[in-house]
Amino acid sequence: MIELNDTHDPNRRSWVESANGDTDFPVQNLPFGRFVRDGGAPRCGVAIGDLIVDLSAAAEAQLLKGSAADALAAVRGGDLLPLMQLGNGAASALRAALFPLLAEGGDAALKAAADRVLVPRSAVQMILPTEVRQFTDMCVSTYHIGRFYGDDERGEPICPPVFRTIPVGYDGRASSVMVSGTPLRRPNGTWQSELRKGDLQYGPEPWLDYEMELGIWVGGPGNAHGSTLSLSQSADAIFGFSLLNDWSARGIQVWENMLGPFLAKSIGTTVSPWIVTSEALAPFRIAAFARPDGDPPVPPHLFDAKDQEQGGFDISLSASLRTPSSPHATEICRSNFRHMYWTASQMIAHHSGNGCPLRAGDLLGSGTCSGPAVGEAACFFERNLSGPVELPGGETRDWLADGDRVTLHGRATREGFAAIGFGEACGEILPAQKSPTR
User: Fold this and answer.
1) Backbone angle region of 367, left / alpha / beta, with phi > 0 → left and psi within -120 to 50 → alpha
2) Residue 122: half-sphere exposure toward Cβ, Cα within 13 Å
3) What's the rounded Cα separation, in Å, for the pair 178 and 182?
4) Fewer CB atoms inside 10 A, N or C side of the chain?
5) Which residues are catalytic, by number?
6) 434 annotated as ligand-binding
7) Domain ranges within the chain, ordered by starting residue
8) What is the pLDDT along the chain (438 residues), one digit of tens a residue?
9) DSSP 8-state code for residue 278
10) Which of 235, 211, 196, 209 is nearest to 141 (CA)?
11) 6 a known binding residue?
12) What is the DSSP string of 128-158?
């Protein structure tokens, strides 16, 4: 597990003024992403304030030496995958070399080459950090599941028995993962007229929903087919995290669900463009979710003392909604990743537990990050159990309407450390295409 180092020093400021103060991207963050400018080829970059360090330009300027230069060379082709394949050591070396170049009082070489190496974020188009190889969506919040079953005699959420014994999930579609800002077209599909009863119909999904999640990006060598990853290896296999909105067609989902989600979930998954590395998040590690008395013990293949002590993350997540009739967004949910019953490392380890190979560039969704309070219900499906969301101007929402725009934000804070953020993952709902007649 990654330890704290000089790059986490909360007292360091950047000579990039926009990287100081209330920003998602201070010098202590340095997330990786990919962008295009003026219709050119994709390039890899690191966010610092409202600027981007163009890593290809940094390589051309020969700003780095040694292992950091080797890591930099891996991304010159405009894809983060080669760096992700090298693992966290290479990303850490690159981060350690960039930190003094961007910090006040550090090496002035990058500042001297700023006109060649730094690009305004407002001047580029962000794209996916890499082409997603495989996508798996997990479901590991007892609060998310328990809202549909109620509480037991202990006052704990009732969940199917499997839920507290292993992290559950399903195979999604990598082809429909899209970068923040990409609109989502309302899907057509088969659904019942009253969600769980009524006449069967085919047409535009009437109960379109969002799900607020974190994306977990896999890095390193992964595991060969037939082999598994231990808990410690799984921690090392996490390259970083992004925001993730797993759009959901609830009418289609309820009708088709005999074998699990299919067309209801492959409609689109929105991710934020920046991958916040495991190293950047090291100060915000916390203990794993405390299992209530009476819950099954953690199974041996998913137990590691260090993961129990430091496997969780204190990351605040929020979702906001802007409707076509409102110029401003309204927060509709605020929760925290600390509520997840299983750790990210346990999700990775369990995914490999049957010998399924995981590879760099794979993406896991954490599952809906819901907490115990009504305002922590991280999708409309849950929130509707307490009534629709009331919006300014008298509007209400129980499902997403055409023209609605959902934006996710995430931020990690801890006293004594610089707060870091994830940027945003946003998408607007477009009307459905006309249903085919033949």
Assistant:
1) left
2) 3
3) 7
4) C
5) 144
6) no
7) 6-127, 135-430
8) 788 999 999 999 999 999 999 999 999 999 999 999 999 999 999 999 999 999 999 999 999 999 999 999 999 999 999 999 999 999 999 999 999 999 999 889 999 999 999 999 999 999 999 999 999 999 999 999 999 888 888 888 889 999 999 999 999 999 999 999 999 999 999 999 888 888 999 999 999 999 999 999 999 999 999 999 999 999 999 999 999 999 999 999 999 987 788 999 999 999 999 999 999 999 999 999 999 999 999 999 999 999 999 999 999 999 999 999 998 999 999 999 999 999 999 999 999 999 999 999 999 999 999 999 999 999 999 999 999 999 998 999 999 999 999 999 999 999 999 999 999 999 999 999 987 665
9) T
10) 211
11) no
12) -SS----EEEEE--HHHHHTTT-B-TTSPBP
State yes or no: 308 annotated in a binding site.
Answer: no
**Tokens in use for 213?**
């999640």
Based on the number of CB atoms within 10 Å of its own CB, is 87 exposed (0-12), middle (13-18) or buried (19 or more)? Answer: middle
The DSSP bridge pattern shows strands 238-246 and 212-218 to be antiparallel
CATH number for the domain whose boundaries are 135-430: 3.90.850.10
| Centroid of chain to Cα 428 | 18
Note whether 6-127 and 135-430 share their fold: no
Closest CA to 212 of 438, 422, 17: 422
Helix (H) or strand (E) holding 203: strand 200-204
Classify strands 208-209 and 248-249 as parallel, antiparallel or unpaired: antiparallel
Architecture of the domain spanning 6-127: Roll (2.30)
- Cβ neighbours, 10 Å, residue 293: 7
To the question of whether residue 293 is assigned a binding role by annotation, the answer is no
Q: Is 265 labelled as part of a ligand binding site? A: yes
